[in-house]
Amino acid sequence: MRKVTFPHVGESYRTFKMLLNDLGNEVILPPRPSRRTLNLGVQHVPEFACLPLKILMGTYLETLERGANVIVTSGGVGPCRAGLYAEVHKKVLHDMGYQVEMIVFEPPRLHPINFIRNVHKLNPARLSIKAIIECIKRAWRKLQALDNVEKATHVIRPKEIRQGDTSRTYKKVLEWIDSAYTMDEIVEAEKAALEELHNIPQDPERMILKVGIVGEIYVLLEPASNLEIEEMLGNMGVEVERSMFLTGWTRDNTWKETVQGMTVKEAAEPYLPELIGGHGRDSIGNTVLYAKRNFDGVIQLAPFTCIPEIVARTILTSVSKDYNIPVLTFFLDEQTGKAGMATRLEAFVDLMKRKKTKIKQNKLLPASSF
Amino acid sequence: MTHIGIPSSLFYYVYFPMWKVFFEELKNVKVVTSGETTREILDKGVSEALADACVPVKVFFGHVLTLRNKVDYLFIPRIVCLNRKTVYCPKFLGLPDMIRYGLSDMPPIIDVRIDTRKMRSAVYRAFNTVGQILQAKKQNILRAYLKARLAQFKFKRLLRRGWQPPEAMAAVLNGRKSNLPADPPGQLRFAVVGYPYIIHDRYISVDVINKLRRMGVSVVTSDNPPPLALRMQRYDCGKILFWTFSDRTLRAAHYFAKQGKVDGIIHLTAFGCGPDSIVDRFIQYNSSSHHIPFMSLSIDEHSGEAGVSTRLEAFVDMVRRKKGEKMNA
């Protein structure tokens, strides 16, 4: 019996589970990455591979223990090495003696046949093309609902009066969206979820700092890999805006570059006119855009040894100077500890607070005036 | 007289003869290099570059800093793709920007973009742009370009005959002629694979090549096999590697393993190198399936002479004993 599994990226597993079930597959849900996941992963992959590869390896091993034998994942065409990770995983898993089938989705714009063949493989229910499109549309809407709810938590958490309310409510409303199945149900669940979140008692008077988060996609999207940095910042009274969500990224990379994608590219142009793979150029472009929108600071998240982000970080020193916006970088790996991260974040938040007070007293110019 | 600075790192080991001949052929241009890597250069680079960057980038920063006040222009081309298939490592794609925005008080940087996927004549066009920046005449540029290609051809021919880039460079540019010593029979022969800017930088590689030679091992590197043979080489990892140097390293390792003329393969890699994490694993799988001894040697800015020597000696002894047993049996 074929049992399908896939990588764990934030809350998106709820959508993929629904989509794969609709197409007639038995799904083994990937568990949320934990210490054990990382330890399993680190044992079997190259030392200098980046954190996403290690976490995914651990996730696959955990799901294989539970009987999965088909892995669905994404490919890529470079120059980021994540495009080769499916091949590395396949080699390592086969070398360890697992008989596992990998279904790798390449960008459909460049490899249309690969896409059709993969969809066919994942369609044991033999749905018609029309039905598949309907399923994908519904899944897409669900993914958007999940992203919208997450965005709402980023705005509400810093203002909550009782600490932990937002996270608790978020967990609850995720289940509502999870159990929604038809298009109408999804829309309704999303509406109800947003309403429930906005009903959390909030303090409108509080001084809120706004921080943009840029960096590599996996460590941005998977809270388990960035040690829940957004929640930590929220509890310190910081409103977070993340530059990347799964829906936005998928649209940019599978179909066309959206208007927003273009402006990021344009913003990065004077500093880095070349696509260097990964999300290096996006990190620079988004930092410029955040500075122009008067954010108080930018945090860059990147896996250790990620070359595009290293290049971006080198250039960001100039961006930070030119726009007078503080930038803090975290290179994450399996050794990163939560306490160390919290200390650095607290110091960073203090710095931004002092700067903001100075701007309010007209002693300093805001970032957008540079 | 315009002084053009070419840092002796990264692309230096692959394209320097071509660049030097081209610039010297234009009138009133003098090429200045930063010379071999030294402790001082490395220290400068380490203090300026990002801590998480790999050693070659730090070394490059050091070389650039050495040239800072000595030249009118720095030549750091943005080489994206030269073979219409693979691109260079992300650090090469962002190299001019890293220097421009990561270091202060830099002379103007000539950063022509070369991408042959868009246009076959991209290389000539790039040289033409560079010539125009230096205000050279059209026919002068063309002549310089042709001479540069000729020098590069001679350089590559020497590489195919088993010379290593620093020796071949000296021979092409200074006309020094010396013959390679022939291998005495019964000697060991190792392949050292990896990126040219790591293997041939005598400081950061802790002079691995000459160390091996002194131990009575003759060395071939991934710069030596004929390019066509490398291109024909198949490696089964589902996809081709995206980066030119990594792709070449992996193909070379497969070529040496399959040919069976070497007794061991050493992969020289830099600490924290992103692409190498994948390349190394693929070479390892392949070497074990061909039953060739394989060692991965990773170097960083703290590599000590003694540590590397010990590991090399142990590896050489192991291979020698294995070969002796095979011959006696």
Structural description of this entry:
With 370 residues, chain A is of the alpha/beta class. Chain A is 54% helix and 11% strand. Chain A contains 15 helices and eight strands. Chain B contains 14 helices and ten strands. In chain B, 51% of the residues lie in helices and 14% in strands. In chain B, strand 9 (264-270), helix 13 and strand 10 form a beta-alpha-beta unit. Chain B has two domains: 2-160, Rossmann fold; 185-328, Rossmann fold. The longest helix of chain B has 24 residues, at 305-328. Chain A binds chain B through residues 45-50, 75, 77-81, 83-84, 86-88, 90-92, 95, 271-278, 280, 304-308, 310-315, 317-319, 331, and chain B through 49-50, 52-54, 57, 78, 80, 87-91, 93-94, 97-98, 101-102, 113, 237-239, 241-243, 271-278, 280-282, 285.
Short description:
Chain A is of the alpha/beta class. Chain A has 15 helices and 8 strands.
Notable characteristics:
heterodimer; A: 370 residues; alpha/beta; Rossmann fold; 3 domains; four-stranded parallel β-sheet; 15 helices; 11% strand; globular; B: 329 residues; 2 domains; 14 helices
